[in-house]
């Protein structure tokens, strides 16, 4: 009977360890999925900021060109 209890306890411990491994792998997979989503969002945000900066820069150059054209007109009118 004592040997049976020891074997049963050993099997229980092995089963508990296996269950812990499964839980840890599941948690790790879920964390990796969430991390991947966050990295995608970060990339999207970075792309948006880059496009926004180009848009602002483009507007500045266009405004500078308009100002230059207006200044040239004023110079010709004199």
Task: Describe the 3D structure.
By secondary structure, this protein is mainly α. It is 97% helix and 0% strand. The radius of gyration is 34 Å and the shape is rod-shaped. 0% of the residues are buried. The mean pLDDT is 88. Residues 24-51 form a coiled coil. Keywords: Coiled coil.
H/I helix tally:
1
Main sheet: strands, sense, barrel: none
Number of strands: 0
Sketch the topology as an H/E string, one letter per element: H
Kindly state the percentage of residues in helix: over 70%
Coiled coil: 24-51
Keywords: Coiled coil
In brief:
This protein has 78 residues and is mostly helical.
Give the SSE map:
Layout (H helix, E strand, L loop, with lengths): L1 H76 L1
Question: Which short descriptors sum up this protein?
Answer:
97% helix; 78 residues; single chain; mainly alpha; rod-shaped
